[in-house]
């Protein structure tokens, strides 16, 4: 997908953003100056070797870290105004981590509804919304369960529902299925594609899996070793919805093989 100039069509714009950290060994540059534009509704995957800055870039976009230089815009709004994050820009994003981070003392429905409670939404309204999301992510019937009673995949479904509870336009996902077994991971990739098609959210996902990247993405953004920089952006042309047997096709293999070769070098 080509770069988008209009703020109305742009979900995320990164302009010269870079990040340095102070360590015992001195100042380390984790992310080189980066420019990237993500159109609304696109599914973008960040792919690269371990330690290349994928998570750093995602955390910069989420407002969890401030760029050392450069700027980030969410929906046309600057994420940082001097030393303060723009509340409207932050509220337009949901984040899902590798660990579902559900509160064990809350039932699943209350975990999902928690962001709404913190925003002052009444109990009846927030529980109704949580039940709708349980239907969306296919854990209906487990609303009153505890997180310890759910499988890893179901906990991640609940985490996705929680991130969607306040209807953000951007969903940021950091290795959300990295701890799952291969069969469950394939199932969750299918589910994530279905949820994305149903909600039209802008999704940016970090992964180490080439197959996962090619299966899910509209575009794969390939990062170099540290300091991370964009080496290449690869368009993935397969129509939606995609089925798992796509991964055995020659066209899929060709894209995956190209990405693997770039990663190895």
Description:
With 265 residues, the protein is an alpha/beta fold. The protein folds into two domains: 21-29 and 38-75 and 173-265, P-loop containing nucleotide triphosphate hydrolases (Rossmann fold, 3-Layer(aba) Sandwich), CATH 3.40.50; 96-168, no CATH class. It has helices spanning 54-62, 87-90, 108-118, 123-136, 152-164, 182-199, 210-216, 250-264; strands at residues 10-23, 26-39, 43-47, 69-74, 77-78, 80-81, 84-85, 93-96, 170-174, 202-207, 219-223, 230-235. Mean pLDDT is 93; it is low at 1-5.
Reading the helices and strands in chain order gives EEEHEEEEHEHHHEHEHEEH
Q: In percent, how helical is the residue content? A: 25-40%
CATH class of the largest domain: Alpha Beta
Question: Considering the protein shown, what is the CATH homologous superfamily of the largest domain?
Answer: P-loop containing nucleotide triphosphate hydrolases
- What global shape is seen? globular
How many DSSP H or I helices?
A: 8
- Give the biggest sheet: 6 strands, mixed
Query: pLDDT below 50 for ≥5 consecutive residues: which ranges?
Result: 1-5
Précis, in short:
The chain has 265 residues and is of the alpha/beta class. It folds into 2 domains: 21-29 and 38-75 and 173-265, P-loop containing nucleotide triphosphate hydrolases (Rossmann fold, 3-Layer(aba) Sandwich); 96-168, no CATH class. The chain has helices at residues 54-62, 87-90, 108-118, 123-136, 152-164, 182-199, 210-216, 250-264, and strands at 10-23, 26-39, 43-47, 69-74, 77-78, 80-81, 84-85, 93-96, 170-174, 202-207, 219-223, 230-235.
């Amino acid at each position: 997908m080509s770069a988008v100039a209009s703020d109305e069509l742009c979900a995320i714009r990164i302009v010269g953003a870079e990040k340095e950290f102070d360590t015992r060994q001195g100042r380390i540059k984790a992310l080189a100056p980066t420019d990237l534009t993500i159109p609304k509704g696109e599914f973008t995957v960040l792919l690269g070797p371990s330690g290349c800055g994928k998570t750093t870039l995602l955390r910069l976009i989420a407002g969890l870290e401030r760029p050392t230089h450069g700027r980030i815009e969410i929906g046309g709004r600057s994420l940082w105004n001097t030393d303060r994050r723009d509340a409207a820009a932050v509220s337009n994003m949901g984040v899902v981590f590798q660990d579902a981070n559900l509160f064990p003392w809350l039932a699943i429905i209350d975990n999902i509804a928690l962001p709404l409670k913190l925003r002052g939404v009444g109990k009846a309204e927030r529980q109704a919304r949580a039940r709708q999301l349980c239907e969306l992510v296919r854990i209906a019937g487990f609303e009153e369960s505890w997180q310890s009673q759910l499988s890893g995949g179901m906990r991640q479904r609940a985490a996705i529902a929680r991130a969607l509870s306040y209807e953000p336009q951007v969903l940021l996902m950091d290795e959300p299925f990295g701890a799952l077994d291969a069969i469950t991971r394939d199932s969750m990739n299918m589910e994530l594609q279905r949820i994305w098609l149903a909600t039209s959210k802008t999704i940016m996902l970090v992964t180490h899996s080439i197959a996962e990247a090619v299966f899910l993405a509209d575009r794969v953004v390939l990062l170099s070793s540290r300091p991370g920089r964009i080496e290449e952006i690869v368009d993935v042309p397969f129509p939606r919805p995609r089925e798992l047997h796509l991964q055995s096709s020659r066209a899929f293999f060709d894209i995956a093989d190209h990405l693997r070769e770039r990663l190895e070098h």
